[in-house]
Specification:
Length: about 450
């Protein structure tokens, strides 16, 4: 309601959020009433009117002593008394609301001026950023400055946002079956994921000899490679200590696996091995390890912390993996279509590093001469320009868009078994946002 009042341009999206919230409340009411039989008098209930056929017991002050009063009190004037003896309860009202909401389109249309789905957890992300900055406080002023350097350069924060949104979606689905302190631990997990990501891009910038990041000097360009590597190691060390404080063996295993896969993915990129798999299969496997693994295992860990059953743990992992691959495929596309100013880092950097990503691999199917350029890693004079031209004059860019869209749709499909909630809707919107991003 506050958003609708102060942001009239967001009125449509605000109304949809309110409807989603009503649906979530009604489902929780339905769930609670189903799990606990309510003793008390017989009550006739209709969709519009609740009429008591028996007065409840009252104490000396005249206050209702029926358990139903404490469960279903709206202000001081409205009291509902339910009994399951004759199946007469608040269920008809709840079910009617749910039927109405099921028939309604609760997905915010693009024309409604919907806010960024990450805005839903913006306050949490701000707190997580402060927590990370506090964790990276050390007696050595230079190490402190370097450890916090990329943290203070505002990034997309997509990875911690995904962990937070998925955690809330799981909480809505599991209701009182979820661990009571799960959200606090999941917020810690989101911070850990972001620290590992920050450490990985520090090391990436050193390996790639990058000179800019997020529109500023890269940490290696500003402080030198040796100190940058140590700053990345410091971030990983702090992330590991935070991970140990969670005291959850399976989560520790998953995040440790992620760090190993990040390194393996970097090796796959720098020194491609002679394998029997196709270039595209190798590209997708490398993409999973370098980018999607952290998101997938972050989501999987969030489900583990929620004490979710195995099918929901797999669901969380599938969403993260597919979203992560879609994100990286779009990143590879933007390397050809966006300017350096939009990206906050140099454009066409992959070709200059000798890397053949999805647009090049698709273009090669139309222009076989790209094969020779790929083999020599675009090192000859004019190779980068030739490759750019061949990609632009092929279906490579469009097919890359389609590939990203396929993985984004797989991510959305993975969420289908989850109960409808605002957080689930935001996760679906996030998959669409990944496809539409320009940096």
């Amino acid at each position: 309601w506050r958003q609708a009042l102060f942001h009239p341009d967001r009125l449509a999206s605000s109304a949809l959020l309110i409807m989603q919230s009503v649906g979530s409340v009604c489902r929780q009411v339905s769930h609670v009433l189903t799990k606990s039989a309510i003793p008390g008098g017989q009550t006739a209930v209709s969709g519009e009117l609740l009429r008591n056929s028996r007065k409840p017991e009252r104490n000396r002050r005249g206050l209702c002593q029926s358990p139903a009063c404490s469960r279903s009190r709206f202000g001081n004037q409205f009291r509902a008394y339910a009994t399951f003896k004759e199946k007469a309860s608040i269920f008809p009202f709840v079910n009617n609301v749910l039927k109405l909401l099921d028939r309604a389109d609760l997905h915010t249309p693009a024309s409604a001026g919907a806010p960024n789905p990450l805005d839903f957890v913006a306050k949490d992300l701000t707190i997580i950023k402060k927590d990370i900055v506090n964790l990276l406080t050390t007696d050595h002023p230079l190490l402190k400055m370097m450890g916090q350097y990329y943290v203070n350069l505002q990034g997309k924060q997509m990875r911690p946002a995904v962990v937070l949104l998925l955690s809330r979606a799981l909480q809505s689905h599991l209701m009182d079956q979820a661990e009571s302190d799960a959200l606090g631990k999941q917020a810690q997990l989101a911070a850990i994921v972001e620290m590992i990501h920050t450490a990985s891009i520090i090391h990436d910038d050193v390996v790639d000899d990058a000179d800019s990041r997020r529109g500023h000097l890269s940490i290696n360009a500003k402080f030198g490679n040796k100190l940058a590597i140590l700053a990345g190691d410091y971030l990983l060390a702090q992330a590991s200590m935070s991970l140990a404080r969670l005291e959850q063996h399976e989560v520790t295993r998953l995040i440790s696996l992620t760090i190993a896969e990040l390194v393996e993915g970097e090796f796959m990129q720098l020194r491609p091995s002679n394998s029997e798999e196709s270039e595209f299969e190798y590209y997708l496997r490398k993409t999973y390890r370098k980018t999607a693994s952290l998101i997938a295992n972050g989501c999987r860990s969030a489900a583990v912390l929620s004490a979710a059953p195995p099918d929901l743990v797999e669901l969380a992992s599938a969403y993260g993996a597919n979203l992560g691959i879609a994100f990286q495929v779009v990143d590879d596309l933007l390397d050809f279509t966006a300017s350096g100013e939009q990206l906050g880092k140099p454009a066409a950097v992959d070709l200059r590093l000798g890397l053949a990503t999805a647009p090049v691999l698709f273009a090669k199917q139309e222009h076989p001469q790209l094969g020779q350029l790929i083999k020599r890693k675009f090192q000859h004079d004019g190779d980068v320009h030739t490759a750019l031209s061949l990609v632009q004059n092929s279906q490579g860019l469009e097919r890359t868009r389609q590939l990203a869209a396929e993985y984004a749709q797989k991510a959305v499909d993975a969420l289908k078994p989850l109960r409808d909630s605002v957080a689930k809707a935001k996760l679906e919107e996030l998959a669409d946002l990944v496809l539409k991003r320009s940096r």
